[in-house]
Design a protein that fits this description.
With 192 residues, this protein is of the alpha/beta class. Helix content is 64%, strand content 13%.
């Protein structure tokens, strides 16, 4: 696992590096403030970021985490000495994948990071499947509308209309979705 460690205290970064390396993790970047963390995440593309919430500078850990997550760079596990309810709720809204409270228990770090990374990949897979299903649904709707137009306009049966769209798709070397959209648009133009 390639990890970016972000904490304003060099000693904590060093301790985290040692803990992570004991679990065969590779610390690919370190930062001491949110702005640097964002830039490093964009360039290094770590598998995961372990980030302190409170850091000096104009961008704190929560804001940096939000940017990294929104840009779909990697999951973020927050590391903090604060466990106030408001911070935990804000972290949940940002979309972080874990929350570790200092002082860190060494036996909690690697399992937390492993689970966070697994959840991240599962979420990415679900998002990809969701996009694929949306595309299939859009295609299906357009084909159904186009079939309806052909059935009404040319007194075709549903199967004939579908085969007509299929045949046009092969002849024109275009996806059935594009052929269906063309049929829909031409029908709308006729009725203007």
């Amino acid at each position: 696992m390639r990890i970016m460690v972000v904490d304003d205290e060099p000693i904590i970064r060093m301790d985290l590096r040692e803990m992570l390396e004991e679990h065969n993790c590779l610390v690919v970047a370190e930062a001491s403030d949110g702005k640097t963390a964002i830039n490093m995440a964009r360039s290094v593309r770590p598998d995961l970021a372990l980030m302190d919430i409170k850091m000096p500078g104009e961008i704190n850990g929560l804001t940096a985490s939000k940017v990294i997550i929104d840009e779909d760079i990697c999951p973020v596990v927050l590391l903090t000495a604060y466990n106030q309810r408001e911070l935990i709720e804000e972290a949940a809204q940002v979309g972080v994948y874990g929350y570790l409270v200092k002082p860190i228990k060494e036996d909690e770090v690697y399992p937390t990071l492993s689970v966070a990374l697994a959840k991240w990949w599962k979420m990415r897979q679900l998002m990809k499947e969701n996009g694929s299903l949306k595309n299939k649904l859009e295609k299906r709707k357009a084909i159904d509308i186009a079939k309806g137009i052909l059935m009404e306009k040319y007194d075709m049966k549903e199967r004939e209309a579908y085969r007509k769209i299929q045949k046009l798709s092969m002849e024109k070397r275009q996806d059935m979705l594009e052929i269906s959209r063309s049929i829909i648009i031409s029908n709308e133009l006729i009725h203007l």
